[in-house]
Each structure stands twice: as C-alpha cells, then as structure tokens.
Hints:
The complex is a heterodimer.
Chain A (H helix, E strand, L loop, with lengths): L5 H26 L14 H9 L6 E5 L3 H7 L3 H8 L23 E5 L5 H15 L5 E6 L6 H13 L3 E7 L2 E2 L2 E2 H4 L15 E6 L3 H16 L5 E6 L17 H8 L3 H11 L4 H24 L18
Parallel strand pairs in A: 1-2, 1-3, 3-4, 4-8, 7-8
Antiparallel strand pairs in A: 5-6
Helix pairs in contact in A: 1-2, 1-3, 1-10, 1-11, 2-3, 2-8, 4-11, 5-6
Chain B lengths: L2 E3 H15 L3 E5 L17 H5 L4 E3 L4 H13 L3 E8 L7 H8 L2 H4 L9 E6 L14 H5 L5 E3 L4 H13 L4 E6 L6 E3 L13 E4 L4 E5 L3 H13 L5 E5 L2 E3 L3 H11 L2 E8 L4 H12 L9 E5 L8 H7 L3 H12 L3
Amino acid sequence: MAEIDRDKLLDIYTRTMKVNRTDEKFRELLMQGKVAVMYYCVRGQELVSAAAMAALEDDDYVVCTYRGQGEQTAKGIPMEKWWGECLGKATGTCKGKGGTMHITDPETGIMVTTGVVGSGIPIANGLAMASQNNGDRRVTLVSFGDGAANIGGFHEAMNMAQLYKLPVVFLCQNNRYGEHTAYADHTDSKTIAERAAGYGMRGVTVDGNDVNQVYPAVKEAVDRAREGGGPTLVEAMCYRMMGHFFGADFSYMPADHIEEMKKEDPLPKLRKVMLERQFTEEELDKIVADIDEQIDAAVQHALDAPLPDTDEIYKDVFEEVN
Amino acid sequence: MAEITMTQALNLAIDEAMAEDDGVFCLGEDVSAKQGGGVFKVTAGLTEKYGENRVRATPISETAIVGAAVGAALAGQRPIAEIMLMNFVGVCMDQIVNHAAKLRFMSGGQTPCPIVIRTTTGVGVGFGGQHSDMLEAWFAHVAGIHVVTPSNAADARGLMRSAIDANDPVIFIENILCYGLKAEDPGKGYRVPLGKAAVAREGSDISLITYGRTVLDALEVAGELDKEGISVEVIDLRTIAPYDEETVLASVNKTGRALTLHEAVRPFGTGAEIAANIQEKCWDKLKGPVRRIGGTFSAVPFASHLEQAWIPTKEEIVGQIKASVGKA
C-alpha cells in the first residue's frame, strides 16, 4: 500500500491531537468541578476518529454516537460552538438543547449524534439514499462501537445498504467494551467485520492504533462508496482506556489489561510515525500548543456565554407556522 | 366530477407530489411494481412513472425503513415510508420517537425531519391481535409528530398532500375498512390543512368528537337520533395530534355536552386527553360529565362476533348520547 502523503499525515496528526486535547481538557474541567455534564471519554480512540474524518470530503455526511467527540471535532465543528453546546449555552451548535449526546452541526456534516446505541446506522443509510437519489456524490460515514453491532437495527441496515449499494461507510470502533460488558462477554464472533460477509458486503478489520492501517482502510471504503461500489464495514480495533462515561466505575476493566493496552496507545505510535516522516519535535509540539490555545479560548467563550432563554423549551417542537 | 376511492385518493396525492418534487419518494415493504404496488395498492403505478429509486421495495426491516426515511429527510428529501400494518411500529419506535420526532428540537431547529409514515390498521376484518390496533395515542403522546387519519376519500387526498408538504414527521393512519369509500374527487392540488378539524355534521345538543372510521358510525347515529329530536354535532378531528382545540371547544361551548369516540382502547386513549381538556376549559358551559367511548381493554379478538363485541357499537354510541342529554 502506498505511503500516506505527508500533507495528509500532518492533517491526521492535527485532527488527532485536537480530539485528544479536547478530551484532556474536558476531563480536567470535570475533575475541577467547573462543569458537571455527561461526557463519554475518547481516550485511546482519537486516531480512529481523526483518520476517518480525514478520509472524507468537507461536505460528506457523518452520523456518530454519544462518544462522538472525536468525529465532531475532527470533522471541524467550530470549537466555540462545540464547547457552547457541551456546556448547555445559547451559543452551542443546538442552542444548548441537544447537549453532549446530541451534537448536530449540518454545516460541517455532523448530521446526527445519537444517544441510542446503534440507532445511527439505519439513519446513515437514509442520508446515503438521498445522495444516491440526487446524485450529489456525497458519502455518509457512520461511526459506532462494537456494542452497537448487536442491536437489530445494525443487521437491518447492513442488509439494506448492501442491497441498494448505498454510498455509506460503516465504521465500527471496536473499543472492546459495550458499555460495561467486555467484547468476549457480548459477542462470540471473532470479529465484527466478518459479519459483513453474511450480507454480501465487504468487511475489513484493521489496527485502529496504526495510522498506516486505519486511514487507508477508511479511505478505500470512502472512495469505493463514492464511485458507486457500495458500502464497506470497516472495523478499527482500538481500546477505550477509561470507563464508559466520565466518573463511571471501571473496576470491571482488568488493570493488567489496561497496562498491556497502553503499549498500543495510538498517540505515541502516531508521533513516532511523524518523526520517521521527518516532522520535527518542535513542529509537532507547536501544533499541540496552538490547539491548546484555541481550546482554552473556546472554553472561556463557552463559560462566558449566555444560557438559552427559558422559552426555548417551546421552540423547535414543530416548524413555526405564522 | 369523478368519484374516487380512498385508495385512489391517496395514490393521486402521492403521485402529484412526486411529479412536482424530485425529493419525494416512497419506501416500504412490497411497495413497488414488482410486488403489485403495495398490499392495498396505494403505491400502484408509481414505479412505472418514477423508477425504482423513488419507489423502493424494502426488506422486511421496519427499523431500517424508518431510519432511512429519517436520514433522507435530514438530507432534504421528503420520504413517504410505509409501515404495512400499524402494529409493526413496535419494531421501529426508537426511530420514530427518539429520532424523527426529536431531531428538530434536539438540534435547535437545524435538522427538521419531514417524513410521512403511512400505516394501515383497523378492527373488523378478522386480522386478530397483532394486525388491528389503533395506536394513535402512542404518537399523540410524543412532542414533534403530527398524527393524521382521514375518514373519507376527499380528505384522504387533501390530508396526504398536506402531510407530504409538512416540514415535520406525520403518522398517517389509513383504516383498512375505509379504502373502498368513495367521494367526489376534490381535484389536483387539493389540500386539507393539518391541525384543522371538520364539523362533519352540525348539531346543538351534544358534540361527538371522533376521527377515522368511527366518523361513519357517528354520522349514522346522528342521522338516526335526529329523528328522535336529538341534535348531534359530529366533529371529525382529521388531525388527531396536535388537534384542533379551537373547533372542539367552540362546539362544546355551544352544545354543553361532549362524547369522545375512538376505535382504540378506552383507557389512556386520546379521548381521555380531549375530555380532560374540555372539562378544564368548558366547565362553565358543561351540562354534564364528558363521556368517552373506546375499544375494549383487551387484545383485538379473532372470531367475528367477538370482534364486533370488542369495538364501539352504534348502540353504545346511542346509549351514551341519550344518557348525556337525559333521554335514556
């Protein structure tokens, strides 16, 4: 497989660090008690989200889940709007009415963030169906976890997508846990991707901690979908390094296994690849410092932003008809 | 003007909407030409005109059907999804309730979800417990969904056009026993606004508030009671939720008495909500308690005589009206 081009690699690195620094900042604010909201940590999965978003065009559609920070920030939702929404402010993407589990920003293609495991998969088909109907050449990518692969809608949607050859990419971020249940305790099939064969679909499993595996796999799936070749189920093996949500007990995750998985941490691995490709420590540090600066400004903007008006509870229920 | 059946009315409304807007398309089980245009033929002839992409016969996958409709709507299209029988909505409630209904609100107005979910049901055809229920109350209880049902062919044409025009999800309930009803064709482009009830018959002694197939029973009973000197006003809600409160309250303020009637089971039915609202807002004008009639609180039975005993009967309607007006 051809090497990832250097500009694209830098793009992936930047997106990855944006996801990671956002995650770190969120946990810091939660620890300090500055914010108290539901947050689903993405530590360990940054690269998968970033590489996948880097494989899409700006106007492609994305459907993600409550653990969707990676897709949302890597796809490019303006940070001020993103933080505004997470803090329940009027300046948020959804005027503070969606929250951390329901971030929506059609301008950057984040069409749905669902709080219901697996429910985004059938919706992604619909976005792709619209593209197939109107020929706009958009691709839809839907991200979900291994847990979602066991809900009925997954199977219904896989079959339908393949039947119609929809321009959709199913990205399973196999982070080894469905909520608090380990993969081996919820699924006996060796991989999620092998299920694709049952629908006549192409399925691939790749190391989600290796940029040289995950980016080309998603890119190939995206290109295939765009050219009318139908859907692909891409399973990216990764590891959710923390509990299901911030603050949740994760004593069920064996400590020695966490230690072992830390060796697979995508961030040092990515940095190593970057250095091998002749990026300098200084360059890489500068990128992170710039991101931190942007995040700090966005957080402050969100903290200072006004709360939504109370009468927002009556708005956007139906179209306002005058 | 020519007469059309309700089936033809629905077909004509969908056809003209598809002709006017490339974004309108149908999907559902058995809906395309290969399968005969739907089990009740509502989508017959559309594949030939608009092709298989716009009349998509789907696998038996209700969650995938409604999910696809939701996604296509978010991308700016206007899907008409068919859930063959209303009981099957149990398979895809998550997509309807958590997604279609709420995405406009949860996105702060950014992602409206203009889908029509057509579905069929009805008691009286011997389909038994899993193919007959009227489940409108399930959806009336969820903010963000219009719930619509026509009682005649003309309204069917007009309501379907308005449902397709609407920028929010619409559950469109078709009663199996009403497909063959005929009416004068109201013509191309005819629309009945959502949220607007019809006074199907004017009267002065009691307001009988109903919708769908039971409008026919209500009108028949009203005609009979007129001969006995009881004047019944029949309100056909047409849109069950959010309903036309103005028309209902005006009628009850005039008559001073109210009876709600629906085929769905009585407990926690839409009649309970309407009755409660009337009691709050028309208390000074009421001459007696608001009465309610609904289906029996059990599964719809199979045997014909059981089924007939299960649904609200004309005798029951007459009895409740007479008790209300003091002529029992």
